[in-house]
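Lab meeting minutes (informal)
Scribe: AK
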Amino acid sequence: MGKYDDFISLDISGMSSDERQFGKRKRIDRLKIPAGESKVIRFLRGPRDPKFYIVRKQHWGIPIGMGKTPPLPCNYSHFEEPCFFCQVVNDYYNAGDPRKQDLARRMKASASVMSNVIDVDDPFNEDGTPKVQIYQYSWRLFSDIRSYFQNPEYGDLTHPLTGRNFKISANVVSSSGDKSWTRYDVQVGASPKELVVPEALDHLYDLDAEFPVKHWSYEQQEQIFEGLLDPKGSPGQPSLTGKTPATKQIAAPDPLDVEDEFEPASKKVVQEEVVEEKDDWDEVLSDDESPAEPEDDVLKKLDELKKLAKGGK
């Protein structure tokens, strides 16, 4: 027997497995709808998935804690248990101090909804694979979309054979200086359409895996707020720091043989939209978006609010 006769073969498959588990994950492809534009999309779900979306409710504008504090889950909404951030928001709203009320508005938890979608007019990647994207949208827009799903007249709007496409339009309704107000209008196709790329159902993102919910206890949330716990670590292995809080930083081919027809649009549209006669849309449902404040102004205000939240003047 030779010295290396029992030398086993290299397990190449193990490399692929390790890459999937530990390697750098591919960048999430997100659907963006710029102001003044619209997209026709199809909401997707797997054959065994009972829902086409997930919801995450998070506290965003936490001005105290470690640098670049990420949005943090609301314990009350996700785990039905006391939430320190909700308590702070409630206390500040009722404090009678406009500065604290401003901080409370920034910290108030807001819900986002995520869905797998495909852009009907751009359904393929450069390599020919289905271009599945994640669409993240507001709870108010979800409420409009949900009203169509709850209407028995439309049936299952995600079904690959009998579902329908949606048209989402982003309209700037007014602006002032650097601020602008965007309204998102949603319309559903007037007739069922087959899914433009059926293979897309084999390329769906695992939404729960892409958007995991970390569970921070009430005490840990308080430590995060006070700058004693880094929320970028693991809840099970917290990293305690000194008591001085860090500064908060803000940081294909034509997919359809026949074009969609949509039911008539309502007169709610601010600017008249030129629609070809062959297009027919359902009524418009709208979601108004609050104006975005310039980042420099936000940072200045947060510097003041941090001092206030710590008991300064």
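Next up, CB showed the second protein from the same session:
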Amino acid sequence: MISECCGVHIKWHDICSACGEHTDAIDEDELVYLEQIEFEEHIQEVTGWSESEVGEQINDVCIEHGYHPDDNYQEALERLVINLNDNARDWMLPEYVKKFEKEIKEIEEWNKTH
């Protein structure tokens, strides 16, 4: 198990170097940061989409970018994650928008300037 305190991951039973407090353990499989989203299951979790809806999104990405679903699956999935990040406020469930608010704002600011 790992803990998170002051935005820093620490091992369970360690003390946070920033504030000196013990923190609650978190599940290592829990999505803590937006950048951890990398599998279909993660997309399903944060959007509430079904497996077939995620599959349809991947197929749409393949059509849009000229990918073949079998040969370019990983590329299509990576592109879908990028699209998810860019559309987080519209696509994600409200609890995940709230959880990833800081990262979503950073992406929105970056997109405005690039």
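CB comment: Strands lie at 2-5, 8-11, 25-26.
No objections, moving on.
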